[in-house]
Design brief:
This protein is an alpha+beta fold. It is built from four helices and seven strands; from the N terminus they run βααββαββαββ. The strands form two sheets. It has a five-stranded antiparallel beta sheet, covered by helices on one side. Helix 1 runs antiparallel to helix 2 and helix 2 packs antiparallel against helix 3. The longest helix is centred in the N-terminal third of the chain and has 18 residues. The relative contact order is 0.14.
């Protein structure tokens, strides 16, 4: 979605992102995604030049949710060490702490995109419990059952499907 990063719009975008994640059954990611998109939109509002126009993209592929905010300011922000009593300057560090990975994609003189990823919960990416297409035909897997195994290992899940 395209928008002006104004304080009144940030809450609306947070609600839209939350609703989309509920639709995708990614409820456990709502708080971290909403926090991340809020921080990125706040950075656009405070720092982006020449305008506050930006685009928010959310993408759910395989087992990763990617949230990105693109603006028209080609300047690349830096993670700063905020002092104990500073009231700002923690946005990118906060995104780094709640996400699995994050980064910045420069777009030359036309701006940049800042993105972060969150791993999807296993329940959202589990394979269906029914037979795969063609499993009941005379093909190489005719009549075979499928067993799915999932194991949490580090920040991402390892999955395997075994036929037989």
């Amino acid at each position: 979605m395209e928008l002006h990063a104004l304080p009144s719009r940030i809450g609306q975008v947070r609600r839209i992102v939350s609703a989309q994640l509920r639709y995708w059954h990614l409820d456990p990611l709502i708080d971290r995604a909403a926090l991340g998109v809020t921080e990125l939109l706040t950075n656009v509002h405070r720092h982006a030049q020449p305008d506050k126009m930006c685009t928010v993209d959310i993408e759910f592929l395989l087992d990763r949710l990617t949230v990105s905010v693109s603006d028209h300011d080609p300047r690349i922000p830096a993670v700063v060490q905020a002092g104990q009593f500073d009231t700002c300057g923690r946005g990118l560090a906060l995104i780094a702490s709640v996400s699995e990975s994050w980064g910045i994609r420069p777009r030359g003189d036309t701006g940049k995109s800042i993105w972060f990823t969150l791993p999807a919960p296993l329940s959202a990416v589990a394979l269906p419990a029914h037979a795969v297409y063609g499993a009941m035909t005379d093909g190489p897997f005719g009549g075979a059952e499928i067993s799915v195994f999932a194991r949490e290992e580090g920040p991402a899940a390892v999955r395997a499907a075994v036929v037989g």
